[in-house]
Amino acid sequence: MEYVSTRGSAPALDFEGATLAGLASDGGLYVPREWPRFTEAEIAGLAGLPYAELAARIMQPFVGDSLTPERLRELTAKAYARFAHKAVTPLKQLDEQQWLLELFHGPTLAFKDVALQLLGLLFEEFLSRGGDPLTIVGATSGDTGSAAIDAVAGRARVDIFMLHPKGRVSDVQRRQMTTVLSPNVHNIAIEGSSFDDAQAIVKRMFGDTAMTGRFAIGAVNSINWARLMAQVVYYFAAALQLGAPHRKVAFAVPTGNFGDVFAGYVAAQMGLPIERLIVATNVNDILHRALSTGDYSAGTVTPTAAPSMDIQVSSNFERLLFDVGGRDGKALAAQMTGFEATRAMQLTNAQREGAARLFTSARADPDQMAQAIRWAFDASGELLDPHTAIGLHAARTAGIDPAVPVVTLATAHPAKFRDAVERATGHRPILPARLGDLFEREERLVDLPGDYDAIAAYVAAHAVPRG
């Protein structure tokens, strides 16, 4: 399998190269040169497999010669052995049509674990073959940071520098990052900044030859293809349980960076019969505006009770625009360069029409989010975190044929957002026992200004250089 950049001028890489590179050298994102496709019979043959085995089967075409099938199965078995539920991503039914896909049974209680537990093992596997030590630089709006840190803490030949906007993540999210005291973990709170500001710093570092010449910089954000690849699996897992390939399924996905829902798009390209992908946003609604009107224009980030969605620049949207717009890297590079200069652009007709074949979208304000939390609790006794509630609001208002099951991706444990859940329901969720002492643990982090030079200097002072 060969990977190409959405902007057309970076060299093509194999799976190992794309995993270690993260962002392409031309500023684009790596995607497979072509989508592998399963027949209906092949999909039916996946039913009933344990999750780790299903993951290995789904991912093998993307991995190519970088890992043998036997080694990939060993890595998936190890990655998913740490999950608290034997099903890894269990389904729960809310009513006749609405379902929850619980993605929060990993070590840090968020869907990011499903991909990052595997990605940490992939980094270790590939780095053991030689080459330069890896310097991971990432930005988080809450959950990516803790999941990535858990996945690579203590691993050889890897340092991780995780940026988060100071004061804009929940106390649980912050402590899940800052109480990991491994020497290869560096938490940076960016003062006076949003997630978009932090992400812009990370992307700039990938293009800074003074940094990339000295350090092998890699990515754990969903700009890294391997992360998206691992997320494709749970769409298959849920759909198979609900009757695929002989029955279509719709998915509602709370998203800010578009990675989680793009994984659903990949599943559809592979042959999974998906009726609709419903993109659910909060008031930071650039994706809803882009999909409904073609207006991809970034505004000012509004802090909300769903901080992982407080984003105005959705990095992975570029992958969709590339694929539905004819895979013209040169044209997309010009389009994205214009957006980066003006923070505004209009989707082309081809992009809008291509997206509309599978995607719809919805926006939830704080009241609608709270109402969805209350509805789930009243209807089924389930407590939802704010992000999942936004997905459920979109699912229940999408007008999907009643014969089609609608699966909302439950992206975080409700105890990560205790205050918002308690305000909506009067019930305060508790952390699982394995995190019960989180608020007694020592924290370690550094506060830095939202200035690229300050961040780059800190990374340079603490990372292990090439050679």
From TrEMBL:
By its UniProt entry, which Pfam families does this protein fall under?
Answer: PALP, THR4_C, Thr_synth_N
Asked whether the UniProt record includes Lyase among its keywords, one would answer yes
Which positions fall inside the Threonine synthase N-terminal domain? Answer: 2-80
Catalysed reactions listed for this entry: O-phospho-L-homoserine + H2O = L-threonine + phosphate
The pathway to which it is assigned is: Amino-acid biosynthesis; L-threonine biosynthesis; L-threonine from L-aspartate: step 5/5
Keywords (alphabetical) are:
Amino-acid biosynthesis, Lyase, Pyridoxal phosphate, Threonine biosynthesis
Residues bearing the modification N6-(pyridoxal phosphate)lysine = 112
Which Gene Ontology molecular function entries are recorded, alphabetically? Answer: pyridoxal phosphate binding; threonine synthase activity
InterPro entries, from UniProt?
Ser/Thr_deHydtase_PyrdxlP-BS, Thr_synth_N, Thr_synth_N_sf, Thr_synthase-like, Threonine_Synthase, TrpB-like_PALP, TrpB-like_PALP_sf
Keyword Lyase annotated:
yes
EC number of the protein: 4.2.3.1
Q: Which PROSITE patterns match?
A: DEHYDRATASE_SER_THR
Broadest EC class assigned to this enzyme? lyase
Q: Which cofactor does it need?
A: pyridoxal 5'-phosphate
Q: Which GO biological process annotations does it have?
A: threonine biosynthetic process
Where would I find the Tryptophan synthase beta chain-like PALP domain in this sequence? 89-347
Record-stated family: Belongs to the threonine synthase family.
**What is the protein named?**
Threonine synthase
Q: Which organism is it from?
A: Novosphingobium kunmingense
